[in-house]
Amino acid sequence: MENLITYVPLLFVAFGMLIVLVSIKGKVDGRQFAQRAQRVPGVVSDVRTTFTGQGEHLRARRRPVLTFTTVDGQEITTEARTTSNLGVGNATDVLYDPQDPTRAVPADSSAGYAGMVAGIIVIVIGLAFFAVISGGFTGVGDVGDGIGGGDSRGQCEIQNADGSVEPMECPPGLWDDE
User: Fold this and answer.
1) Which residue, among 82, 50, 53, 51, has the nearest Cα to 66 in the 3D structure?
2) Which residues contact 70 (CB under 8 A, 6 or more apart)?
3) Which of 58, 66, 72, 129 suits 12 as a labelling partner, its CA being 20 to 30 A distant?
4) What is the DSSP letter of 155?
5) Dihedral (CA of 118, 123, 124, 128) sign
6) Alpha carbon distances (Å) from 22 to 19, 43, 62, 80, 116
7) Is residue 43 helix, strand or coil?
8) Which residue has the higher pLDDT, 136 or 26?
């Protein structure tokens, strides 16, 4: 059970890596969309707000409803795929998918790097906890590893059959410099 607890912080690392990978995928998908999208002038005709959470954790997501005319003259009104702080009546360039004009975003909306930064922070926290729990930063290492810079001679332990640990005198010749 003790060994299992040692590896729990690695769940933070895995979760952080997942956050980073999803963020990278979002950036790549956004760039690919922008490369194939058509850019036309448009206007924010409405803003749809959805709420998630409750109490002090209540968060609002504002998605603009974009009205624009496609390159081939079709007038489209659709809710953007991304959130934005654009208000009703604001003029904005619109990027839309020529194959599906209802798939559109304001041209100035770009996903930031916040997801990647958050993922990296979670990874670093997980690795730090793992290092502390596994004994990597305690200054007391395995027998003969010399971690901590002090003289670790005489700090050996023996584990008994019942699982208890007792300090013992380290065997002679354990270190190369003896």
Assistant:
1) 82
2) 38, 40, 76, 96, 98, 101
3) 58
4) -
5) positive
6) 5, 30, 21, 20, 8
7) strand
8) 26
173 in the Ramachandran plot: left (φ > 0), alpha (ψ -120 to 50) or beta?
left
Residue type, 108: D
Cα–Cα distance measured from residue 33 to residue 109, given in angstroms and rounded to the nearest whole number = 12
Q: Going by C-beta distance under 8 Å and a sequence separation of 6 or more, which residues neighbour residue 177?
A: none
pLDDT tens, residue by residue, 40-86: 999 999 999 888 888 888 888 888 999 999 999 999 999 988 888 88
Q: Are 42 and 93 within 8 A, CB to CB?
A: yes
How far is it, in rounded angstroms, from Cα 123 to Cα 67?
41
**pTM of the predicted model over 0.70:** no
Q: Give the number of other Cβ atoms within 10 Å of residue 68's Cβ.
A: 23
The string of DSSP letters for 83-152 reads ---PPTT-EEEEEEETTEEEEEEETT----SHHHHHHHHHHHHHHHHHHHHTTTTSS--STT--TTSS--
Name the token pair of 22: 């999803």
Confidence band of 129 (pLDDT split at 50, 70, 90): confident
H or E segment and range at residue 67? strand 59-69
